[in-house]
What does this fold into?
Amino acid sequence: MTLPTSLSLAAHRAVQTASPDMNNPADLRDKPRQQLRRYEVTSLLPDGSFTEARHIAPALPLFEDAFCAFSRGALIPTVSGHIAVEDLLPGDEIISAEGSVQKLLWKGSTTLVPGRPGPQGRNMRLTRFMADAFGMQRPLSDVVVGSAARVLYTPPHLRNAHDSSHKLTLAQEFVDGMSAIETAPPTPVELFHLCVKRHCTIRIGGLEFETYHPGTGAARSTSQQMRSIFFNLFPHIEHFGDFGPLAFERSDEDLHGSGAMIA
It folds into this structure.
């Protein structure tokens, strides 16, 4: 059977204008895809109750950093005593390192394998601070944290001769093989982060770690599409400004610069 001229011509044109990925399925298989990760969120509701939700979102630094700070068993100071981070619930009152009482608004968690590189080869290994790494009983015993954890202390190689104040510094910057070591378990590890109304630090094992804040440059470096996905993880947040100001400067951030756009 011979195809009508018009139908034959239409088929020819379709082949000529088709996407290269359609012409060569191998190209489609080789094309890098956006990696996704599962995130779990527990957040406080206006009536004082809380809700739990599970999200699938991009495995990008903006998203991962909201979940990868504290490991299971990290003891968080509250008005009711120290509570393991996995047992905290929104509404619990956390005692900040500055002595103020902050209500927990949000807790996020995710599970990853630290021994495997993250997207684009990102280092997702944990950092173990050995006992007395920062002086007597700082920390009191070993403290293990994730890639997004920041400590209120500036290591010597990041200090400015004209600025003696301590800044929030990523835990990985302290790795020296003695007082702080990298650890990469080959099995899944659950990590957490906490968000309160006003950014602050909390003492864990004698060290001051920050609560969650996306950073001052997040608004400038995130596309509108990514913003909507990101804010969906935070029921109490509508704009980056709702996170409030940083309590302390970060040694890894240029507070006046802007990062690359996250599409």
Summary: Residues 5-17 form the longest helix (13 residues). The helical segments are 5-17, 20-23, 25-30, 61-64, 224-231. DSSP finds five helices and 15 strands in the chain. Residues 1-5, 7-12, 14-22, 254-260 have pLDDT under 50 and may be disordered.
